Amino acid sequence: MPTRPLKILTVTHNYPRFIGDPAGAFVARIAEGIIRLGHQVEVVAPHAPGAAVDEEVGGVRVHRFRYAPEFLERVAYTGGLHQGTLGSPLAALSFPGFVLGFSAAVRRAVRHMAPDLIHAHWWLPGGWLASRSRVPFVVTCHGSDVGLLGRRPAFRRLAAKVFGRAARTTTVSEFLARDLVKWLPGQIGPLTVTPMPVDVEAFLQGSGAVKVSPPQILYAGNLVPSKGVDVLLRAAAALTHRGVPYQLKILGQGPSQASLQALAHDLRIESSITWSPFVPQTAMPAEYGMSTVAVLPTRGQAEGLGLTLVEALLAGAAVVGTPAGGIPEVVRHEETGLLAREGTPANLADQLQRLLTDPSLRARLNSAGREHVLAMYSPKATIGRFLEIYRDVARN
Length: 396
Prior knowledge:
By secondary structure, the protein is an alpha/beta fold. It has 14 helices and 14 strands. The strands form two sheets. An eight-stranded mixed sheet has the order 3-4-2-1-5-6-7-8, with helices on both faces. The protein has a six-stranded parallel sheet with strand order 11-10-9-12-13-14, sandwiched between helices. Helix 3 packs across helix 5.
């Protein structure tokens, strides 16, 4: 085991652009936690309009590489790189520059820092870029990147090379670990499930917020088809038809926003919905705390874990999810929350109605849910696991 502090280069296409930015906040928590344990971390991430190119935040040196004029820097952050960002003509136009700029920035950081290892978040593009260097690397899969493997054989061929060279692979959930092995049988090296750390102290403070009236249902996330927000809107219309009092808050942005707002208009539930863009991460504990229920109605297998539900439980909201991806690892039906049948508005409305109208059920599920997430997702536990992996990789 190295006696000197480790030098870790973090490579990611998603990292907070400003204080309180939710984009890649969990990546920042790992980096800052490792710094507090006495090690050195530097981050390479894409630039975004209005962000600093070079700065130090929480002891972490962050370099955001430029890859286009600022108005064309649209590849990362907005809507998820793996989930439709490149459907934007402006993003597609700047994508070649993004890849070249990212590659050059990683090479410069390796020369300058001489890291003991690279921690790449998402196998594409971060893991692929790390695999092109001679530095040992850890690659962490978060969900959308694993989803790429089912799209085209070309992605699986490229991924096999990345994971074949990785010193260690981690995923944020058991579900993703199973999916990796399914798509790349016999091609994944040492594999560990390492949940992302949550800012436990901050979200626990949300539990002191006063609940709004009528009771609020909160969805917080990207507005993309895989998230099932259209199903949520139809479930909300069913609640209205049943005479269940509620207010729905949609907190997020993405390419589906216009079509979702049109659907709300067609369903005649506009007066029951508040639409909000993303807010700083520092505001999220209160958002969850004011809400009676937080919901994540994801369809398909597009949810690596469902971290918003972890945060909601800490802040005192009851939770409803679907059996999509890693959500059941957070929401154990009837134990830590409720699961609705995927893509079924009536059943989602049933689960929401139960929590909106049964205070004792809400209290029981939230209490058990909070204990569960404290044991699994506290920074002390999760960052400690990553440090063990780093030391093992550096030693070997």
